[in-house]
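Re: that chain you flagged

S.,

Sorry for the slow reply, it's been a week of failed gels. I finally had a moment to sit down with the sequence you sent. For the record, here it is as I used it:
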Amino acid sequence: MNDYGSFLTLEVPCDEAVKWVSDRVSYAGLSVIRTFDLQVARHAQMACPCPHHGTDSCDCQMVVLLVYQSDRRPLTMIAHGYSGQTWFSVVDTPGQRADPHLEAIIRRLLSSPFPPFVNFVNATVI
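Prediction finished late last night. Pasting the structure tokens below so you have them in one place:
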């Protein structure tokens, strides 16, 4: 698990989970921009070891998403995954407060049963 205070856990690899979340949020009319991808950053430095497993074949992944609603500041979400699991959290720090309205919309979207882009049997929303 991670230390970000995750609110959603999916029993799928990170890239699949990020696509599902992005599709679902976009379907609701919000904009999503992927601003950081750990695997892309790692490929820039071939000698960079994985911080979780320490092997070249590691599936550790961290993705930062900015979610926008037209008249609100963006909300930052972090997806952290390894070993076929992915945890999502919202950045809410004194220096970067999460918009509570936008966060509530996202939590509702990700916990509601429609539309079924992917059937994640083992999803847990906190």
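What I noticed first: Strands lie at 8-10, 31-37, 61-68, 75-82, 85-90, 124-125.

Talk soon,
D.
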